[in-house]
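2024-03-11 09:14:02 INFO worker-7 job=invfold-0412 stage=load source=structure_tokens
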């Protein structure tokens, strides 16, 4: 990463996660390539930078003593979260060699009410039974805790489009589900699905509270709700 930091160094765009500035970001995207969105220093995307700002401004994530479970940890967060002295930080994944726990999200091998914070971002579109996985995440979250459960979402779609197993062509699957290994494309009903699993859900439009200049400086998504889920 150090080479990218030097090669792309500039003062046009800034990543709030590593607090470094660049002359440009890199393109990224399978379904539709987006220009100038991938931070060359830590590989953060728009959604990662938005969530970082939300955590800084709207939660006690960086100050309180918290026990955290992070499913499929994102590279741009992993090292930073591990170094945070206020976090009792555990990672989990089905196969990843860096994960502390290897597990199937449909059947989490942990007791009830364990974690103050749960992150599970861009995972639920890959699982066979998303309701079962949501209820498992709810089960291990402590009362009073919060979960961040982001997904790829088509906000023009009222209802989630579930998997059609007869569609096997990878290019067609990418066109319909935005990635060939996605098993659904979530619509605006996503929050209701989380509520059915037990969560109290705040569909937080945090990005809309930020100035256009800041959105451009950090290269944030223009319209992406943050699903801040709590357990009563």
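2024-03-11 09:14:09 INFO worker-7 stage=emit residues=232
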């Amino acid at each position: 990463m150090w080479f990218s930091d030097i090669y792309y160094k500039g003062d046009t765009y800034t990543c709030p996660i590593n607090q470094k500035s660049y002359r440009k970001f890199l393109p990224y995207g399978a379904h539709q390539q987006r220009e100038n969105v991938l931070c060359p220093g830590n590989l953060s995307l728009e959604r990662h930078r938005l969530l970082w700002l939300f955590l800084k401004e709207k939660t006690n994530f960086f100050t309180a003593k918290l026990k955290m479970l992070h499913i499929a940890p994102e590279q741009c967060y992993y090292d930073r979260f591990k170094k945070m002295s206020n976090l009792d930080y555990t990672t989990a994944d089905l196969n990843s060699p860096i994960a502390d726990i290897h597990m199937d999200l449909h059947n989490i091998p942990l007791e009830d009410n364990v974690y103050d914070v749960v992150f599970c971002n861009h995972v639920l579109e890959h699982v066979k039974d998303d309701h079962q996985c949501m209820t498992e995440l709810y089960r291990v979250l402590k009362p009073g805790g919060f979960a961040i459960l982001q997904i790829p979402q088509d906000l023009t779609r009222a209802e989630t489009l579930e998997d059609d197993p007869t569609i096997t062509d990878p290019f067609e699957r990418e066109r319909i589900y935005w990635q060939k290994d996605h098993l659904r494309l979530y619509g605006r009903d996503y929050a209701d699905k989380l509520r059915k699993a037990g969560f109290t859900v705040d569909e937080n439009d945090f990005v809309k509270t930020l100035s256009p200049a800041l959105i451009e400086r950090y290269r944030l998504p223009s319209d992406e709700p943050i699903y801040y889920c709590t357990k009563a």
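2024-03-11 09:14:09 INFO worker-7 stage=report msg="Residues 168 and 180 are 9 Å apart (CA to CA)."
2024-03-11 09:14:10 INFO worker-7 job finished
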